[in-house]
Fold this sequence. Notes:
The chain is of the alpha/beta class. Helix content is about 35%, strand content about 20%.
Amino acid sequence: MASYAGELSTEVAPAVRVRSLHRSFNEAGGVLNGLDLDIAPGEFVALLGRSGSGKSTLLRSLAGLDRGVAGTGVIEVPEKVSVVFQDSRLLPWKRVLDNVTLGLRAGDAADRGRQALAEVGLAGREKAWPHELSGGEQQRASLARSLVRDPELLLADEPFGALDALTRIRMHTLLRKLCEVHQPAVLLVTHDVDEAIVLADRVIVLDGGVVRHDARVELDGRRSQADPAFARLRARLLTELGVEDDHDAPGRHLDRAVERAAS
Ligand SMILES: Nc1ncnc2c1ncn2[C@@H]1O[C@H](COP(=O)(O)OP(=O)(O)OP(=O)(O)O)[C@@H](O)[C@H]1O
């Protein structure tokens, strides 16, 4: 694994610094076993790992949502952290704009909320109730709620996992655009290797409670699945995950068809 911490040390202070992080839920063994991780300001890191490898545990630790869990280690995160989950977690009894601005005290909260909703393509839906939005629209509102807080760190736990393939691709485009504008550091937990490569500057693989693999994504522009470099990185990551890369699997054909339709 590349020593990422060393590369950063003389440049800028990392937005996220984790050292020797241990977490365990019972005596049976640790989930995180001395994990080290740096994320630079504005850097987009995707986190892959087998089911149960501790991805959500790491994300929840960074979000401060792990109270009561045994563990040691150093966690340094910026002051302003936003979290997006697989379900939008919008409050059903509040209208969309009120969900987005919930807890904001600034006098211009409503204006900022409207602007955030416009950025995610939900202008005009401010007064809608969450149940009146589609799944994709609910996740857009959830992104707006995060971005209105102008986070220095965005933590996302499989935010597109419940969406259909076409909506997911649209959300990828939206998230990339929002990240270009707002430049938060991002840690995205995903099971989808292609999603990781399409979105991230760096992809890390968690295994045995530590970062086992750390790959910079050196692809320019559109990051097409048809690019041989994309395929090579996918194959390498799938090997790290202990999975065969099956180019002929039905899902791959669907992905390619959806990509063609979206381009
Ligand atoms: N609150 C909890 N109490 C007890 N064990 C837990 C708790 N939360 C997670 N675990 C255990 O910790 C391990 C790591 O879980 P975690 O949810 O972090 O994995 P993950 O990589 O995000 O998995 P998945 O990809 O399936 O979502 C699992 O074995 C899980 O059973």
